[in-house]
Design a protein that fits this description.
Layout lengths: L7 E5 L6 H15 L8 E5 L2 H13 L6 E5 L16 H6 L4 E4 L2 H6 L4 H13 L3 E6 L3 H5 L3 H12 L9 E5 L13 H18 L7 E5 L4 H8 L6 E4 L6 H10 L2
Parallel strand pairs: 1-2, 1-8, 2-3, 3-4, 4-5, 5-6, 6-7, 7-8
The protein binds phosphoenolpyruvate.
Length: about 260
């Protein structure tokens, strides 16, 4: 990893977390994060939107707001309007988010989000001053068919809005078949996809070398160090293992 790229360890809580137990886990994480570390990775929690404001206040009270960032899991492309049930990037920012995940495979599959929609959402994130975490990744059929790189390339090219740079965008490579399954690609496969993403970014933006490309898909305490040691892996997007501080903190430590 180039020295200029600060590692990002991001937790995606998905549709998990009620106020009281959520705050209890956050407090444990905040306590661990207060310990000084020589080279600290950036720590991010993306809880359900219902918890954002409470988490922001709790982190401020704990003096941990500068050590743990907050993010949304999705946003609408419009700043406001008649979109029942949706949240804008501006609302997420107002509630304490500095990041938002866009194009997660569960959104692409469950809500039929295509690349054009993801691009609009990423643009909305930037409009609101949020960093977008743009997710790409192939299905098992695409990998088995030898189409992993071309799938990721197509998604990335079609999902990147104009004005993308290393300050407003993180790319997350998340093979769909590795999410929540306990399976991970080989280090060679991860390196090949991350290297390909870096190459594509170089052709699209001037500060491509500074863009963080993080890996997601069954990252746990026992495989985090190995995954983070791969060239061009600048952090992790963690689902299941981000729900408790006990499981998440060792992954953060693996990035020190
Ligand atoms: C995810 O949903 O982004 C994810 C990586 O999940 P898990 O870590 O549970 O595979």
């Amino acid at each position: 990893m180039a020295a200029a790229r600060r590692r990002l360890i991001a937790g995606n809580w998905k549709m998990n977390g009620l106020v009281r137990p959520g705050l209890a886990e956050l407090a444990k994480l905040a306590k661990s994060a207060r310990k000084p570390a020589r080279i600290a990775p950036e720590i991010l929690i993306c809880p359900p939107a219902t918890l954002l404001q409470g988490f922001r206040d709790a982190l401020r009270e704990a003096g941990a707001a500068r050590r743990i960032a907050l993010g949304g899991q999705d946003c609408h492309s419009a700043p406001s309007g008649a979109h029942t049930g949706d949240l804008s990037a501006e609302m997420l920012k107002d509630a304490g988010a500095t990041y938002v995940i866009v194009g997660h495979s569960e959104r692409r599959a469950n809500h039929r989000e295509d690349n054009a929609t993801v691009r609009e959402k990423a643009a909305a994130a930037h409009r609101a001053g949020l960093v977008s975490i743009l997710c790409v990744g192939e299905t098992l059929a695409e990998r088995d068919g030898g189409r992993a790189l071309v799938t990721v390339e197509t998604q990335l090219r079609a999902s990147l809005p104009s004005g993308v740079n290393a300050r407003n965008t993180v790319v997350a490579y998340e093979p769909v078949w590795a999410i929540g399954t306990g399976r991970t690609p080989t280090p060679e496969d991860v390196a090949a996809v991350h290297g390909h993403i870096r190459k594509l970014l170089r052709g699209a933006l001037p500060d491509a070398q500074a863009v963080r490309i993080i890996y997601g898909g069954s990252v746990k305490a026992d495989n985090a160090a190995g995954l983070l040691a791969i060239v061009d892996v600048d952090g992790a997007l963690v689902g299941g293992a981000s729900l408790t501080a006990a499981e998440f903190w060792p992954i953060v430590q693996a990035a020190l």
